[in-house]
Write a structure and sequence with these properties.
alpha+beta; Arc Repressor Mutant, subunit A; 13 strands; DNA-binding; sequence-specific DNA binding; DNA-binding transcription factor activity; AraC_XylS_family_regulators
């Protein structure tokens, strides 16, 4: 566990779950910035209240509830009470969830969870059991529990949308701007130059990008950088080198954005990832 001034967090991946990240944490003052994940975010609240902005509103998840955020949906996270909150989070990839849904005979398409906070004790128990197995269970146990828990969650709470999750269609200028940001991770253009390259003016691009993606271009770019940083940390590169390769000014800049998105500093993330590959 990473001890951060009384707050503790551990972010890792079990060897038997190569496309599922796990987080166990207690946060009091920590605040997640507006961010997204490429896969699903499924958290079981053990104590306190997790409060988070989500789709234009504010959600509150208390003890025993399950908080679910669909892929690429912008959200935050902070304590809803002075005592903070304790939770266990599962981050399965879209491929994992789609695969389990297909095994259940669900229609072809991306599973979507319409409700961000679920009051469902049986689902919470199964997800907690899966998470605990990810700390100490063997490969057969944890992989079995993954399917059992996610199948239960899907059966009770998901709907399926062929071809996507019903989010706003991406205008060509936003798609082109996004692709340019991915290609120019280290040396991104200014907003004016970015707009010029996609054939529009700065304000229309900013408005369309924020409406479609949920973040302005500079904040979206930092999300892409954090994801790239995670991949390099997984390869074993030192955080200082990762910062230079992903466009952050220095290691402190990387650490600030990494912790506000992932929940732990880069070094703690890397140590846990390496321990997971060794099978703990």
């Amino acid at each position: 566990m990473s001890d951060m001034g009384g707050e503790v967090a551990r972010y890792w991946r079990h060897p038997a779950l190569p496309e599922v990240d796990l987080l166990r944490a207690r946060f009091v003052t920590h605040r997640f910035a507006r961010h997204t994940h490429p896969g699903y975010t499924i958290g079981v609240i053990e104590a306190g209240v997790d409060e988070f902005e989500h789709r234009g509103g504010v959600e509150r998840a208390g003890p025993g509830s399950v908080a679910v955020v669909n892929p690429d949906v912008v959200h935050t996270g902070h304590a809803g009470t002075p005592e903070g909150w304790t939770y266990r989070v599962i981050y399965p990839s879209v491929a994992v969830v789609e695969g389990i849904a297909a095994e259940l005979g669900a229609p072809r398409g991306t599973p979507v969870f319409p409700d961000a906070v679920l009051d469902d004790p049986s689902t919470a128990r199964l997800l907690s059991a899966l998470h605990r197995a990810g700390e100490a269970g063997d490969a057969l146990a944890v992989s079995t529990m993954l399917r059992t828990a996610l199948a239960h969650l899907l059966t009770r709470h998901a709907r399926h949308v062929p071809g996507g999750d019903g989010s706003v269609a991406m205008p060509p200028i936003v798609r082109e701007a996004r692709d340019l940001l991915h290609a120019r991770l280290i040396d991104p253009p200014s907003l004016e130059k970015l707009a010029e390259e996609v054939g529009t003016r700065p304000f229309p691009l900013l408005r369309a990008f924020r409406t479609t993606v949920g973040l302005p271009p500079h904040a979206y770019l930092n999300q892409v950088r954090v994801r790239a940083a995670r991949a390099l940390l997984d390869e074993g590169l030192r955080p200082a080198e990762v910062a230079g390769r992903t466009g952050f000014a220095d290691q402190a800049h990387l650490t600030r954005h990494f912790k506000r998105t992932v929940g732990v500093p880069p070094g703690a993330y890397q140590s846990a990832a390496q321990a997971g590959r060794r099978g703990r």
